[in-house]
Amino acid sequence: MTFSNLLKSYVNKWVALTADRKNVVASAKDLKQLDIKVKKANFKDVIYHCVLPFDKFYSP
Question: Would you put residue 26 in left (φ > 0), alpha (ψ -120 to 50) or beta?
């Protein structure tokens, strides 16, 4: 499974990924809720990522 396929169902949400970026361990509408979920489940060594729509372009 590719990284984009993994994240397709999480568009416009925040996700917590495993350190190897192969699995989503939690998701939420905002970062604060995601952080609460991750701490409650006691996940260690996760990466937070905001999933933007795939059909849009982002330029900082």
Answer: beta
DSSP state of 1: -
Return the DSSP state at 58: -
d(CA 41, CA 29): 17
Task: Report d(CA 42, CA 33) in Å as an integer.
Answer: 14
pLDDT in tens, the chain (60 residues): 788 889 999 999 999 999 999 999 999 999 999 999 999 999 999 999 999 998 877 766
pTM recorded for the entire structure? 0.85
Identify the burial level of 26 via C-beta atoms within 10 angstroms of its C-beta, where 0-12 means exposed, 13-18 middle and 19 or more buried: buried
